Amino acid sequence: MAKKTYTPEQIINKLREAEIHINQGIPIAEASRKIGITQQTYYRWRKEYGGLRIEQAKKLKSLEKENARLKKLVADLSLDN
């Protein structure tokens, strides 16, 4: 199965969909399967994105990307010296 990359908006929407299933009494494993992810992915997403609005998730991803870029830049500069 090919690995699919989801945008923060898609992740939050899938988490909301899963919560609807769970609130209806469906077990987490089955709710995860219904939205097309594994149970482990559900828990990881809930830990990272739980309670965030879409705008906040976008900002989080943007900051993480910038942080990685800056870390690489610092590492490259320290290797040059």
Descriptive notes:
With 81 residues, the chain is an all-alpha fold. 77% of the residues lie in helices and 0% in strands. It has one domain (8-80). It has four helices and no strands. The longest helix has 27 residues, at 54-80.
Residue share in β-strands: under 5%
Radius of gyration: 17 Å
Count of helical regions: 4
State mean pLDDT (0 to 100 scale).
Answer: 90
Query: What's the total count of β strands?
Result: 0
Structural class: mainly alpha
Helix content: over 70%
Number of domain units? 1
Shape: elongated
Largest sheet: number of strands, sense, barrel closure: none
Following the backbone from N to C, one meets helices and strands in this order, namely HHHH
Low-confidence stretches: none
Distance between the termini: 44 Å
GO molecular function, one term: transposase activity
Keywords: Coiled coil
Pfam family, one: HTH_Tnp_1
Coiled coil: 53-80
